[in-house]
Specification:
Distance between the termini: 50 Å
Largest sheet: 7 strands, mixed
């Protein structure tokens, strides 16, 4: 019996990992991506790839050696400072950590390079999906073309066009947003900020707000200015006027150390607003033949360091299940979902607890306790 061709919507890390592990097992797939090319937009910042999920996916993909070549040494270093710049916690990267840091764009390119030519079809924005019966589905694209498939996987992120086939749920605003900016070549051009950030990640936190900054390749500092505010509050800011937007955001940090506020006031890029939306923690669906979801399409949560890792593990495990049950798609999909649902719910709960530590009334002391292992009941 011929192996079912897998149709994947979305060329993010989850969809590409799925395609790669399917390829390892000799199962053909096609990935349809709305973006026009791999370089159509910036691909986000640093990712810490964990030994209990993301690295397992890369092992299944046969790409661990190549992954190691992307790791940026020293980036697991972590610092917490007070709003006046006082160092509260400093953990250097001694090379023994289990969460090596890589650039998202470089990891995505590694996965793209590992696929047969033509696997990814760029410029295919999904306009609609519908069930045809018997486990078959039709996907229609904005250019008027369509494809019919026996196995459809939505790897198309928080605002998935595939999800409505399975679930009426849509992500809702979490109450937290970030404003994203970069400082380039920081060691020479922004030395005070570079010094306070150090070699890896910096957290400067207060109740409901803070700076989270990562040192990326080439001394670039990537900052997420975190604010717990209603969407209407941000709607009153004109982000097309960068100077005015920056001035309004930095007012929320009046009295903070200048080397911290400079992370946004001296930014080399326009501020980009990123509201955080999440699906219900226990989001799941009844098994519907011929279609499933992975990654943010299935379980988007506020960023907590696990989203990319979970998406990759989802993709790898789904591919492995399909390889283990080549003549029984439904058993494979059931196996995939049965593992994914509790894993994603547990991680979302942990993320909620992390945000309470980072931005609750006791910050940053609870977070320091977590980092140092103090006050842990287990």
């Amino acid at each position: 019996m011929p192996t079912t061709h897998v149709t994947i919507i979305g060329a993010g890390l989850g969809g590409l990992t799925l395609a790669r592990v399917l390829h390892v097992h000799g199962i053909p797939s096609t990935v349809y991506e709305a973006e026009s090319s791999p370089t159509a937009r910036a691909q986000g910042g640093m990712l810490d790839i964990h030994d209990y999920n993301g690295q397992l996916a890369l092992q299944a993909a046969g790409l661990m050696d190549e992954f190691q070549g992307l790791v940026l040494a020293g980036r697991e270093a972590t610092r917490l400072v007070d709003r006046d710049g006082t160092l509260l916690f400093d953990h250097p990267d001694d090379g023994t950590g289990s969460r090596p840091e890589v650039q998202r764009g470089e990891l995505r390119q590694l996965l793209l390079d590992s696929l047969p030519a033509g696997t990814v079809r760029w410029g295919h924005k999904v306009s609609g999906t519908r069930a045809l019966g018997g486990g078959r589905h039709e996907v229609t694209f904005a250019d008027g073309t369509s494809v019919v498939t026996d196995l459809l996987v939505g790897a198309d992120g928080a605002w998935s066009r595939v999800r409505p086939l399975l679930s009426p749920a849509t992500p809702e605003y979490t109450g937290m947003s970030c404003v994203e900016v970069y400082l380039y070549d920081s060691d020479t051009r922004h030395s005070a900020s570079a010094k306070v950030v150090g070699g890896g990640a910096l957290f400067a936190l207060a109740p409901g707000k803070g700076f989270v900054t990562h040192r990326e390749r080439g001394g670039n500092l990537h900052t997420y200015v975190m604010l717990r505010r209603p969407r209407d509050w941000f709607a009153d800011i004109d982000f097309t006027d960068s100077a005015a937007a920056v001035a309004r955001i930095v007012r929320e940090f009046e009295g903070w150390a200048p080397e911290l506020t400079a992370l946004i006031t001296d930014a080399d890029t326009a501020p980009v607003l990123r509201p955080f939306a999440a699906l219900p923690v226990e989001h799941r669906w009844e098994r519907i033949p011929g279609v499933t979801l992975i990654g943010d399409a299935a379980h988007v949560a506020a960023p907590n360091g696990e989203g990319a890792n979970l998406a990759m593990l989802d993709g790898a495990e789904l591919a492995q299940a399909l390889a283990a049950h080549p003549d029984d798609i439904e058993t494979a999909l059931t196996e995939h979902e049965r593992a994914m649902f509790p894993r994603s719910a547990e991680t979302a709960d942990e993320g909620t607890e992390l945000y309470a530590l980072m931005f609750g009334d006791d910050t940053p002391h609870g977070l320091i306790s977590m980092f140092t292992g103090e006050g842990q009941g287990e």
